[in-house]
Amino acid sequence: MSATNDLLQDHIFIRRLQAVIEKCYTLLYEGKDVPFGDLIKIADMIEQFVDNFHHGKEENSYFPETEGRDHYSEEIRKFVLEHEFGRRIARRVRVHLEEFLQGRDAREPLARYLKTYSLFILDHTSKEDRFFTDVKEKRALSDGEEKDLKKEFERMKHECVRKSGNMAEVLKQLEKTEWAN
C-alpha cells in the first residue's frame, strides 16, 4: 500500500470514529448517559490518533513532500489551518469533558463540541480524500517517494502504538458498546 493509500485508509478509520462520536453526542443531547470511560476513550482517540498520528503524518511528512508539486501549496495551507481548527475543537471537548467528569453541568457544551468535531471530520476528510485521489491520479509522488513516506508512516505508527496503545482495538470496543448500537 502506498503512503497516499495509507492516509485514505486512515480516513475510513476516522469516519468510523465519527459515527461513534455522533451516537455519543446524540445520547448526551437526549439526556442519556454514556460511560465516563468511553467518553475519555473518544477524547483520547481524537487527540492521539486523529491529531497526533494522522495529522502528524500529513503535516510532518506528506504535505512537505507534495507541497511544491502541481500547485498543491494552497490546498495544503488550508488543510493545515483546518487541522488547527480541529485541535481547538478537541481542546474544548477535553475542557467540557473534564467539567462533566467533575460533576458540573457540562453535558450540553460537551455534546455541542462533539457534534462540531463530528462535522469537522466529515467535511475535512472528504476534502482531503479528493486531494489524495488527485495526487494518486496525477502520480505527483514517485514510487520511491511513496515508499519512503510509507516507511516513515510505519515508524510513526509504532511510536503511536507504543505511547497510546492499539487505537484500532479501542475503536472496535467502542463500536461494540451497548450505547453505540
What labels describe this entry?
6 helices, 181 residues, Four Helix Bundle (Hemerythrin (Met), subunit A), mainly alpha
Description:
The protein has 181 residues and is mainly α. The chain has a single domain (3-176), classed as Up-down Bundle (Four Helix Bundle (Hemerythrin (Met), subunit A)), CATH 1.20.120.520. 83% of the residues lie in helices and 0% in strands. The protein is built from 6 helices and no strands. The protein has helices at residues 3-29, 36-66, 73-101, 107-137, 143-164, 167-176. Helix 1 packs parallel to helix 6. The chain is elongated. 29% of the residues are buried.
Uncertain ranges? none
Helix count, DSSP H or I runs of 4 or more residues: 6
SS strand fraction: under 5%
Largest sheet: none
- Please tell me what the overall shape is: elongated
Concise synopsis of the structure shown:
The protein has 181 residues and is mainly α.
List the helices and strands and how they pair.
Layout lengths: L2 H27 L6 H31 L6 H29 L5 H31 L5 H22 L2 H10 L5
Helix pairs in contact: 1-2, 1-4, 1-6, 2-3, 2-5, 2-6, 3-4
